[in-house]
Amino acid sequence: MNSGKTIRIAAIPGDGVGQEVVAAGRMVLDALAEDSNGAFAFEWTEFPWGSDYYAQHGRMMAEGGLEQLRDFDAIYFGAVGWPTIPDHISLWGLRLAICQGFDQWANIRPVKFLPGVTSPMRKADDTELDWVVVRENSEGEYAGMGGRNLGGRPPGGEVAVQSAIFTEVGCERIMRFAFDLARTRTRKHVTSVTKSNAQQYGMVLWDDVFNRVAKDYPDVEVDSCLVDAMAARFILQPESLDVVVASNLHADILSDLGSAMAGSLGLAASANLNPERRTPSMFEPVHGSAPDIAGQGIANPIGAVGSAALMMEHLGFPAAAERLNKAIEGTTAAGVLPRDLGGNATTEEVTSAIIDNLQA
Ligand code: GGG
Asked: Where is the Isopropylmalate dehydrogenase-like domain (predicted)?
């Protein structure tokens, strides 16, 4: 008998494999709740938004969609993007509309080796990789400002402008978030990713704010690295990193590199947080809709289940989050691996194994 909290979640499976991995994540979460001794239960509301919805309604989400989501405890998201719709329309119409509409300004993307998962970067099974990429999630290169065909130039001479907006408030809050996170970790190190040698306004502001905020955290080690050098450092000196804070675009690119180093993009979990908790936060695997494998039952559900763990942590159930993470580890350690990790387990088999491992 449930006498604990009923957690109200808005599920938005979205496009392609998003639908498969959100279904998998929901099964795992329901099994977790059933076994929680009444500590919590989930009440799910599913929203059919995405590219199919666009085909019928000419928009990616319902009119007033944000208002429909506002009172949920959290949003559990799959993926967005489908070949029939230009990617910038689907992304801005759904995922970014939610992230920016709810001011989910901090995106965290942990990067970790899992037991039993090999990768070209993993020289021995005991090699450690344990970072968190902190992505500024509200402005920067994703400010959505600019225009095309300015001045009405003739065909062949078109000009487009895409502005990156960096505000002192936006930079400071993400820096402080990264430093606060680093303080909870063993290494207590923050690396700021920049490109201030070439981008002399926004990225210099980014550096100035980083250096100023760092003074308030004398117990945290810091360094700063150009984004191009950082890509090389990910590969050549992974042990030198702990918390990596970067702009919207830089962090998006680097976190994909990091998850590939850990074995596959399919493993990567993420949380889009409104740390002030004024609005619901959104939890989603980092991967996209993967049209090439959608509907085949072979998508990797681990990124979605890992995102569910981040959601439980955020909602104040750290022991439940730990159980989810341990169940993922038990599954990969036992060699139940989907295709992107070199195995042949289906989405359903990996999901069942994770549910079985909740008991371990
Ligand atoms: N689950 C993540 C997702 O659907 N991503 C789609 C995508 O294209 N994202 C690009 C971005 O957010 O920068």
From this structure: 8-354
